[in-house]
Structure formats: C-alpha cells, structure tokens
Amino acid sequence: MAFGFGKPHFLGIDFGTASIKAVELSVEDGRLVLMNYGQISLADLENGTPPQGRSYDEEIIFHLRALMKRMKPKSRLAYVAMPAYIGLISLVEFPAMEESELEEAVRFEAHKYIPSSLDDIALSWEVIGRQSAPDATEKMEVLLVAALNKEVARYERYISGAGLSVDFLELETFSLVRSIVGEEPGLSLMIDIGSRATNLVLVENGLVKVSRNIDIGGRDVTRALAESLNITEKRANILKKSDKNFLTNPQSALVFPVLQMIVSEATRIFASYRTKHPGSQCKSVMLSGGTAQLTGLTEYYANIFKLPVVLGNPWRNLEYDRALTEKIQESGGAFSIAIGLALRGTEMLTKKKEELFPSPKKKFSLKELFIKKI
Fold first, then answer.
1. CATH fold for domain 2-356
2. Collapsed DSSP state (helix, strand, coil) of residue 139
3. CA–CA distance, 15 with 61 (Å, rounded to integer)
4. Structural domain boundaries of the chain?
C-alpha cells in the first residue's frame, strides 16, 4: 500500500505462466478507482527459448522490473499471488474443540495431505463453518491452506529483485474468488482456465469449499485447434481470440478433449460435494482466464451443465477512464487475479478503519486464507 496525495494505492501482481500482470487501485471517497494496469509476456520462457545467460528466476525478475518501469506504480508494497498448483487447499472436518486444541489437531491432520516436513511448510487455516453430524455431535469445517516455504521465499525474491516489498502473499484461488465471485450468495462453480493449468473452485456465500487443479489449460486448447485445422499454433492462437465459433456452430464445430476433461472434473466435484452436503445445488458457473473468452464457450458449458454460465467480470466494481473501456472489455478476465490482489489491500484498509472506528452493525469475518511468511 502506498499513499500519494493522501490517497492509498494498492498494487496486485500476478505471476502467470504466459505473462506477469499487475493492477494498481486507489480508494477515493469510498470508490475503487483503477489507477494503472499492465502486463508483460513470458512467451519466450513458456516456449522454452533459452534465456540470455540468465536463470529462469532471473528472467522473471528481469521481466517484472521491465513491467514496473513501464507502469511506474506509486505503491512499492505488493500484494502477490502464487499459482494454485504449487499449494494445497483442503476442507477438513474436526470434532468441535477449543481454539487452543485446534492448532495441534490441524498440524496432525496436515501430515495426511503434505508429504514434506511441516517445518518446510507455510501453513494457515480458518474455521469456516459448524454443522451437526448424524450422531448429533457438532463438527467444525476448517479450510487448510499450505505451500512450501521455498516457494514462498522464491516469490518474495521476485518482488524484492524488482525493488518492491511483499505486503501480502496468497494462493491465486482466493484472489480469483475475491474479484470474480465476491460475496455472491449460494453455491457457484468458478472455472479459471489459465495457460498451463485450470483451477476449479466451488464457492458458497463467498467461502471456498472445494479447490481442484488440473494440468491442462489454454495452450492445450490452442494445440488442439492447430492440430484439427492443420495450422501453426501461432495462427491457432489468433483464431482462438477471434469471433469464429468452433464449439457450438454446426458448420465449424470441433472436438476439444481438453474442455471435456474440465467438465469431467467439475462433475466429480459436484458429486463429491453432494455426498457430504445432500440437497446442495450449484446455481451458476463463472468462467475466468484468457481462454474463457473463446467464442461459444459459455453456451457450450451451459448446454452440458444445464446451468447458467457467465463470464466473470473482475472490473465490474471499479471506476476507470471511459477511454479504456474497449481495451478492458477485450481483456475480459485476464486480470482477475491481479485485481483480486489489489482488492485484498482495500479490504485490509477498510478493516483497519473499522478497528479504529468500530460499528456495532458491522462484523468482519475472514472470507479467505492467506499465506504470509512471518
């Protein structure tokens, strides 16, 4: 967070596989204002092109420096996301117990999910619900979040290497939920199709209930399109971003096994959740990520899931120069993570103000977990 001319600024940085994206927000009279945003391609690294005598990490720092030099953000403190596939998010049930007992129970349970020593892990958890079991005992729902300390340290090095400091670090899942779903009531499924991996998150009333990652993404869609049409991947990527409908138009429809794999994983998530929560019904599906813009994808998934499917809009609550409208609409949900990170900063500012001037009508509850190296 930075303060310029008396206004706080919040810088969110998303390290994606294909690019680094950053968004800077300001809070002005209670309004969320977009001050700056930008991205820099990592295509050379993604395609395996040898760096110019630098290691992969050095290349990331080099690109981040270039992006910050171009953006010139007022804030030197960054809110940072790590890819979901390098961390763990799991919903675990415990018998009702005191907070003092819970820490030991969580650390014991974590051994079942984490092969590494807990000394090597950044671990966080939050009680997100309580419910009665069939035997009339009370159960606690605890959301467990973990990542390797060495991964946390790596992203901190990226930030410090660019002359910035980490204010907050979390898994990208929570950034996405914050910007795309927010406090939306009911049960929703968010599907974020990144370049390398797809993140499927079941969210209920703003709380992450299930998070799954599968190692397929937008680049696999591009490759499938290139193979089907016998064209280069570069040409396929251009077509993927065009208005051409390769999904639901009978004259041009193609088969994309990658998209069906996402459906299969979503179906497993629904089935597993209903087993534990009989009667629960998902009310909608929200799409995010660059590939979410693929023409016909919302209709394609709506036909399969028999649910409303919409493109997530992370810009909906932000004010920005109207001259940017076309570019922002073209970007779709590509900046969802970076926006969600900057929004986290605004939430923390609001919470600090609330602590200074508490309102009897306002009660804060943690809607996401974070990993921050102490």
1. Nucleotidyltransferase; domain 5 (3.30.420)
2. strand
3. 11
4. 2-356
